[in-house]
Design brief:
Layout lengths: L9 H8 L5 E2 L4 H10 L9 E10 L1 H8 L3 H12 L1 E7 L5 E7 L6 H29 L11 E5 L3 E8 L2 E8 L4 E7 L3 E12 L2 E13 L5 E12 L2 E13 L2 E16 L1
Antiparallel strand pairs: 1-5, 2-3, 2-13, 3-4, 5-6, 6-7, 7-8, 8-9, 9-10, 10-11, 11-12, 12-13
Length: 265
Amino acid sequence: MFKSRCCVTLAVIYCLAGALTPTALGADRKDVIREARRSYYDLKSKGLAGFECQVSMDWDSMFKTLKPDATGRDQVIPILKKTQFQVLVGPEGASTVSHHSDVAPPNEEVAGRVRQSTGGVEQVLTGFFQTWSGFMMGAPFPEADGDYLLENLGENYRLTYKETSVDVVISMAHDFTIDEMRVTTPDFEARVHPEFARNQGEFVLLGYEATYKAASGAPQQLSMKIENRDVQGFSLPATVTATVDLPAGKLEMPLIFSDCKVTKR
């Protein structure tokens, strides 16, 4: 899901500090993880090998916050409205995002502003699918027979594990609802607070609030709201609304998915 190296796990730090006195689960931890994995909607286990969608941006909603100047309003936005994005998601959840437009910018200034805007949308889509795939393309837990620490904190569980070089800490209730996932890499730290709905007893991602902090720089807050729809028997995004906190206010980016095609295993 992410790349990083491991230092001392947060669980060990908490124990050394005496902040918590968790109880590490023994042999029954495998049963807990197996049940947790079964509780989440998993597109891979349901036979999805990948999909592709066209994605369009509601630029009018976005520019309500940005307040474009005359050049932006008269030259940049008309080009952006004719720009179509495409996302390809592979069998393991990795995504590729691209875009095209049949309208050529009249000059380099407009071209640069178009590139900046389309690049921003591609970054948002790529970041979204990195998080989305962790919850929807495979359960967000290690294998039951894997290497991890599962602790009972009373009202919830804390799961600590490592994915290649990534440190992951998950807090979840006893019904396996994840309320926080913390990811630490050499380059950034992330805290994700997901929101789910039940679909035939399985958790389906409806959105998340996230805080990202690079090794250098201020934290960035982001929220995603997802409306899903059925595409050939699979629950896939229909609209995704990204909200980013900026000094000028909250920037809302509504993304509409259409013409989705799935590949089955």
